[in-house]
Amino acid sequence: MLLSPPKLQIFSILKEFATSYKMSEFWLISAPGEKTCQQTWDTLNNVTSKQNNLSINYKFHIPDLKVGTLDQLVGLSDDLGKLDGFVEQVTRKVAQYLGEVLEDQRDKLQENLLANNCGLSEYVIRFQWDLAKYPVKQSLRNIADIISKQVGQIDADLKTKSAAYNNLKGNLQSLEKRQTGSLMTRNLADLVKKEHFILDSEYLTTLLVIVPRNSFNDWNQGYEKLTDMVVPRSSQLVFQDNENGLFTVTLFKKVVDEFKLHAREKKFNVRDFTYNEEELAAGKNQITKLATDKKKQFGPLVRWLKVNFSECFCAWIHVKALRVFVESVLRYGLPVNFQAMLLQPNKKQAKKLRDVLNQLYGHLDGGSVQGSSGPHDTMDIPGLGFGQSEYYPYVYYHITVDMVEVKSL
To answer: Which family does it belong to (predicted)?
Structure first.
């Protein structure tokens, strides 16, 4: 379908926007308030978004939380780093398992990964603290413990639910696999009928034999001679695939073992099989039952995964907010006066954006080099929850909301 010039122009702009900006990547930073926090925001926005097109910026709203003592903040900082990693891990596990459960509908995974009924990027951009779940009158430690307990329970429930569903799915797949595949291993019950067998005879029995396709003539000409007491002209081709054929043969019960031995020497494989209508019906019913059970569990499990993915993701972004608050107080001191900001970087300008941020905030750390393109690599401040490779003069956290692999435009 040809696009009209205006539509083509809009499409090009959207494609360029999606290509330039990392739609699922955010830099969550904070800087101390200047005369006002609004001034801090305006300064950043002017030099990164309005003038240089380095990023799209949003204010990140963090409520007035209880500060506590400096010692409590230092200890909490390290614990929040561990909690951050744990909550992200559980969030991604829930997303991954939802993809596994969806199976052939896996292409719909992205649309099922929502946070509070909206897209993940939208939730981060419009983040609002959940006062009902995490009351700001609670201490920071208590809020962290609430999140830890909540996500820990989801993780434990996920292990239980996934184990039960995987067991059911595995049993069904095992039975279904036996309904197809090579005649050497598949279930033969669906291929044979009652009339193929001599039943209820004191002396005679019917065997099922797997014969390679290139040996059909050898079988037809020689099966009566493999041993004595084989019923003449009793063999019948029941089924064949690309490699083998399934034949019946009737003989006296007393020579069955001898017949099997000589058949094996000719590379004819006798399958152990007893025709029993009740057992065959039970086997078919078991597959039907497992398939029905899987179908019944599928809907509730998908709903549980979607709900708890949202819970985990929202909890994860709240942990990020806690970390920004704690690190900002430790960095910039009291009274609390900082502006948290969310940057969506132009990926073609990421290095320049980092340079601009270091120029803007390098004065916050006397040891940093203004204009450096990388993180500060000479300092590691104990208790701040940063390693040497990720310390910047300003508070910084990276957020990637990609939970599945997405092909680029």
So the answer is: Belongs to the V-ATPase C subunit family.
Tokens found for residue 157: 């429930």
Q: Are 156 and 95 found together in one domain?
A: yes
pLDDT at 188 (0 to 100): 84
Determine the pLDDT at residue 380: 43
Rg (C-alpha) for the chain, rounded Å, is 34
Burial class (CB within 10 angstroms; exposed 0-12, middle 13-18, buried 19+) of 232: exposed
Same domain, 164 and 26: yes
CA 373, CA 394: separation in Å to the nearest integer? 14
**CA–CA separation, 310 vs 120, rounded Å?**
9
Question: Domain check: are 235 and 319 in the same one?
Answer: no
**Token output for 121:** 């990027």
Q: Is 9 exposed, middle or buried (0-12, 13-18, 19+ CB in 10 A)?
A: exposed
| Residues facing 338 on adjacent strands | 32
Q: Into how many domains does the chain fold? A: 2
Residue 364 corresponds to which amino acid?
L
Residue 170 — pLDDT band, cuts 50, 70, 90?
Answer: very high
Of the pLDDT bands very low, low, confident and very high (cuts 50, 70, 90), residue 22 is low
Q: Residue 238's CB: how many other CB atoms inside 10 A?
A: 17
Give the CA distances from residue 296 to residues 45, 125, 304, 307, 403, in Å, rounded to whole numbers and listed in that order. 52, 37, 13, 18, 27
Sequence letter at residue 42: D
| 44: pLDDT strictly greater than 50 | yes
The answer for residues whose C-beta is within 8 angstroms of residue 241's C-beta and 6 or more apart is 182, 183
pLDDT at position 165: 96
Note the pLDDT of residue 190. 78
Give dist(CA 286, CA 265) in Å, integer.
36
Examine residue 405 and state whether it is found in any structural domain, yes or no: no
